[in-house]
Amino acid sequence: MTRKSNPPHAGLPAMSARAAMIALQLLVAGCAVAPAAAPPSAPAAGPPAAACDDAGPLSALAYYQTLQRMTPVQIARESKVLAASPPTPNTQVRMAMVLGHPRGQSDLARALTLLEAVLKSTDPGAVSLHPLARLLADNYGERQKLEGQLEKQGQQLKDSQRKTIELQEKIDGLADIERTLPQRPRATRPAGVVR
Hints:
By secondary structure, the chain is mostly helical. The chain has helices spanning 12-32, 57-68, 72-84, 89-100, 108-120, 124-180. Helices cover 66% and strands 0% of the residues. It is rod-shaped and about 105 Å long.
């Protein structure tokens, strides 16, 4: 009696067909589920970003992302709008973001003052912004320290360049003096002296 042996890959087409059917069912089921929330679309010609005064860290983070896409002119306009707004904790954090933005008129000291006011406040709107305000304050403090170090190093570089120029001028002056000196006659040894 001969026994037919099934090759090890004989069930593979059936398994791959099942896997394809399961994947297709999951794909169709995924398409049938309605999305929880539609992604917000950017308003084409809506009000400025500061006009929306939603309190909370998520709206502040969204505002920060909006700032990243703004030009320096738009950031300056945004600063004026925020300055005219009532000083709520959310407005203070947003103003600090504008003041600390690298493409705007950076005023890190004023931004830190605004953030410290938010951090000291016990208002519920301010308390929810404390982690973000602390993060921004730490970032701006570090930037302020680095800018100070950069300025100090720039001054040291200018001083060392000035000293290098002065030393080179002294060396050139000494070389000029050496050239004007009469040459000394060579000393000759007496014939009888052996060294």
